[in-house]
Each structure stands twice: as C-alpha cells, then as structure tokens.
Amino acid sequence: MKAYCVETAAIRYNLEKLTRLAGKTPIWAVLKGNGYGLGTGEMAKLCHEAGIRRFCVTEISEAMDIRMQFAQAEILMLRPTTDLGELQQMLDLDVIATISCSAEAAALNSLAGQRGTVAEVHVKVDTGMGRYGFMPHETEKILSVYLHNDNLAVSGIYTHFHSAFCNENAVFAQAETFKGVLNALIKAGVDPGTAHCCNSAAFLRWPELHMGGVRLGSALLGRVLVKADLRRVGRCEATVDEIRWLPTGHSTGYGAAWKARKPTRTAVIPVGWYHGFAVSYGDDIFRIRDCIRAMLRALKNMLRRKKLYVRINGSLCPVLGHVGMLHTVCDITKANCSVGDTAILDINPLQVRGMEIRYQ
C-alpha cells in the first residue's frame, strides 16, 4: 500500500494565516499543475471555504474543475494562447484570458466578436521572466489591447518575479519596471485595472508590493523558500514490504553505493524516484556560480553526513544506497519495525505520481 496523504487541517491553517496577512488585498489561489499535484477541485473547495473566490490556472481542465463547483468564481488563465479550440472553451467557461502579445488579442477579439460577446482579459508584462508578456517598452501595443479591441474588456494587468526567494534587488527592479508601465497607461488616460505582481515568496517578504491582488500557490502548501509560519502539506505513507538482515560487506541498490560495515537490519519500502521520492529540481542551470553553489552544497552535505530518512513508528531510519525506481531500502537496526508497518516519506506533491491522493 502507498498513498499520498493530504492534511486538510494544515491547508486550512495556511489559508487562515495567509488571508490574515493579506488583509483587504484579494488573494488569487494559484492551482496550476492540477492544484500543485493535490487535485484542482479539492484544493479549490478548501480555498472557497476560506473565503477565496479568485483562482489562477494554466489548463482548461483545471478551469473546468473549478467552474463545475463554483459558478461565480473568477478564474484567470495564466497561460496565453491563440489556439481556437482553447479560446472557445475559455469563452464557454467564462475564464479571464491572459493577453501577452498582439496576436493573442486579435485572435480572442475576433472570436468574441463572432459570438457576440465580450471576453474579460488581463494583460501580461514581461519584466524579466522571459516567458509570455509584452515587453515594458511596447507601450503602444499594450495600449492597443485596451483601446482597439471592442470585444475585449481589460480588467487587470500583471507581471511575475523570477527571484523573489533570493534576490531583493531584482524584485524591486522588476517592480519599478512594472510601475513604469502602469504610469504610462495612466498618463495615456487608460485605467490599467487590477495590478498584481506578487507570488508567494514576494507576498510573504514585501507587503508594500501587494498592489491590487496577490497570487499564492506554493504558500498554500507551506512549501516556500522563505521563512514563514506555515505548515508543510502532504506526505507519502507506504507499508513496509520486507525486512531482512544484510551481512557485513553486503551491498544494496544500483552501483553498490552502500555496503554494510556490520550486520544491518533493513526494510524495503515500495516507493522510489518514480513516485517522486528523493527527486530534486533546480540542477538544470549551468552558470558558473550555480555550478559552484551546487558543488559547495554537495560538499557541505557530505561533511555534515546529511542523509535521506524514512520515518517508521517515530524513528528516523537512514536510507541506504541509491533510491531505486520503485523501491527504497532503509536501516531499521535501531527501530521498532515489522512487515506491514507504515513508513512516512517526504515527497513534494508536484512530483507525486503512481499513487492515490488521499485527503484526511
């Protein structure tokens, strides 16, 4: 047995904390990636119970999951598109579209005109993220979305910070660039609509940047890279499949990366990297400073003898050798453990697959 267990009490705690910090600033709950791996519909329900009525998604299926439950919810599609089929579905679902270039504005304006309706949209400005958005200097193109598309109603404008978890100077440089665009629109006699720029990390660190709304995703799960009084949501639970003693000198796992220095009692758990355990991301950047940081981090972990652990009956049991595709072996020599007992493994919900998502 294995399942990913989601503590609704922890989610409710985080929602209460975040809504209190936001005060009167509207929260857009970001439920991309199928609700960060936890199910869009289930997460939307918990957010709605906490008073949140605005949601951000990236897929039509996510928008549909929310709209089926909440007819009056505001749903912002963060991913822009010119695909006719997707635009049709977005109009059917009454989704707020993102416009990040003139071609997208033209496509949606034309379709909305054919259907005799007006589509609500937010404009995206690229202040440095490098994916989607008008460039800040493209003032005329941005103005055109507001002024020259009779079947588009622009109700908001936003940008996205790329380094809110680590670089304050970069954040405020982006914020100033974004404010420059807002000022240019106002100077031209245009009401920009609701302006928003804060993701979870920026929301928690800089209240002065909250503007007309904040977009919170990872904070809902308590998995942010800044200090915050939030609870981590989600854990994998799996039964111990097998227990055995390995003699001195015996190895385990691919590459025989670990060998027993003395007789060791081990447990085999049916969870591996395929399910998301011990999977990391962020090692796909090859700037010199990032490579150096990665090497220093690895050296630091080696010197500290930092290990992976599995929790069984209250004991932290070190993982032995490489984590396999579908199995993990851990040391239970000092633990109270029997076949069939429950092992708890920490897995990021976005990386979970191959197991049931179970709300508790």
From TrEMBL:
Chain positions recorded as substrate binding sites: 131, 325
Protein name: Alanine racemase
Keywords on record: Isomerase, Pyridoxal phosphate
Cellular component GO terms, alphabetical: cytosol
Lineage: Bacteria, Bacillati, Bacillota, Clostridia, Eubacteriales
InterPro entries named in the record: Ala_racemase, Ala_racemase/Decarboxylase_C, Ala_racemase_C, Ala_racemase_N, Ala_racemase_pyridoxalP-BS, PLP-binding_barrel
Membrane-crossing residue ranges in chain numbering: none
Gene Ontology BP terms: D-alanine biosynthetic process
Organism per entry: Candidatus Avoscillospira stercoripullorum
Residues of the signal peptide: none
N6-(pyridoxal phosphate)lysine: residues carrying this PTM: 32
GO molecular function: alanine racemase activity; pyridoxal phosphate binding
SUPFAM superfamilies: Alanine racemase C-terminal domain-like, PLP-binding barrel
